[in-house]
Write a structure and sequence with these properties.
Largest sheet: 6 strands, mixed
Number of helices: 1
Strand order of the largest sheet: 3-1-2-4-5-6
Order of helices and strands: EEEEEEEEEEEEEH
Helix content: under 10%
Radius of gyration: 26 Å
Strand content: 5-15%
């Protein structure tokens, strides 16, 4: 075998420990094992790598087989191998269809970030029994796995995970995710977690502890097949960003967020934008005193007929651009606590609200510093006439 087919991080020694080996066969099978000897029943390997289990890869192109990633069609772990990290291992393996990591000893691994990122042909995988007590990062683990239909993480032991952002982003064929038993007690990042899961009709998050989560922006963005979502287990006292959280959830008809603690949330931009079937949303617990951006918050919510935002106080909000733009069925809006104390722009705020006849809102548009272009464009004439002018 040619030396340039070998990837070596350090020579085997008592200090470093024995290497694992990865053998890529002409069939497209990548076998990870504890010995260098190829399987005599198979064709001669195209390449053999070793030493990779003792490195933590931090970039998308640093796994040793990255240059031959398109030749990999399945991955089998044949022996008990103990890597220090699994981050970026199979990034961009666009022809990988099946992966079995069941025998992997992940007891010392710190990260699984981007493990299968951009594996666009991946259809099935086995992670059953994998113990990963030290893993803190599974960010982007399945990002872009657009052929994956089911994922079962119930048997994956990851008690210390901190980062789950972008976990299933772009998994457009996913119809089933089993997250039961996945602990989230220490998790603080969930941004874009299910973003683009456009085939997902149901999602059980009843076991989620979100008390330490700081960002939920884009968490369910583009989940256009979700018809209902029970988030009653969610506790959000630490969340700072909820921008685009439900953006594009065009099949949701109702949302009960009455238990959300939004006292630390600064950004709610486009939070419900594109929720075109949303007819009822309960925001009675929302505290917006720390919010700065409410732009496009309800953009395109054309099924909403009434909205009670009586608890919305906006002393720090600078941007309300297009906040209710396109809410064509909205008849009544209560927002008596809105203020222009920090407000800079309300352009397009009610544009296209063609059914709006009752608006309980202070005259924020009369403040000289507020940019009001097309604020009431397309609204009924009586409503426009009833508003004070500068």
């Amino acid at each position: 075998m040619e030396n340039d087919l070998l990837y070596e991080q350090c020579a085997p020694s008592e200090e470093c420990g024995p290497h694992a080996y990865a053998l890529l066969y002409p069939s497209g099978e990548l076998v990870i094992q504890a010995k260098a000897n190829p399987d005599p029943t198979k064709q001669e390997p195209l390449a053999i790598w070793h030493g990779f289990e003792q490195r933590a890869f931090t970039e998308f192109d640093t796994a040793p087989w990255f240059g031959m990633r398109s030749k990999i069609r399945q991955v089998i772990v044949a022996d008990r191998v103990r890597p220090v990290s699994l981050a970026w291992w199979f990034y961009g393996c666009d022809n990988l269809v099946f992966c079995d990591l069941g025998k992997l000893d992940a007891s010392e691994a710190m990260s699984m970030a981007h493990l299968f990122d951009s594996c666009t042909s991946l259809e099935s995988l086995c992670l059953n029994g994998m113990q990963a007590p030290c893993v803190k990062n599974i960010c982007g683990m399945f990002n872009g796995c657009k052929s994956l239909k089911t994922v079962d993480l119930s048997g994956l032991d990851i008690p210390r995970v901190r980062r789950m952002n972008h976990l299933f982003e772009g998994c457009s064929s996913l119809v089933s995710i089993n997250l039961s038993g996945v602990p989230t007690l220490w998790t603080n990042h969930m941004a874009h977690m299910f973003c683009g899961c456009s085939s997902l009709a149901t999602l059980d998050l009843s076991g989620f502890d979100t008390s330490r989560v700081q960002d939920m922006w884009g968490m369910f963005s583009g989940c256009s097949s979700l018809t209902s979502l029970d988030l009653s287990s969610f506790r959000t006292p630490s969340v700072k960003d909820m921008a685009l959280m439900f953006e594009g959830c065009s099949s949701l008809t109702s949302l009960d967020l009455s238990f959300f603690d939004t006292s630390k949330v600064e950004v709610m931009r486009s939070m419900f934008a594109g929720c075109s079937a949303l007819a009822k949303v309960d925001l009675t617990s929302f505290d917006t005193q720390g919010a700065t951006d409410l732009s496009s918050m309800f953009y395109g919510c054309k099924a909403l007929e009434s909205l009670d935002l009586s608890n919305f106080k906006t002393p720090n909000v600078t941007d309300m651009d297009a906040m209710f733009c396109g809410c064509s069925s909205l008849v009544s809006l209560k927002a008596p606590a809105f203020s222009a104390q920090s407000l800079v722009s309300t352009s397009h705020m009610f544009e296209g609200c063609s059914s709006l006849v009752s608006l309980d809102m202070p005259p924020i548009e009369t403040e000289p510093q507020v940019y009001t272009k097309r604020m009431f464009e397309g609204c009924p004439s009586p409503l426009v006439a009833s508003r004070p002018r500068r």
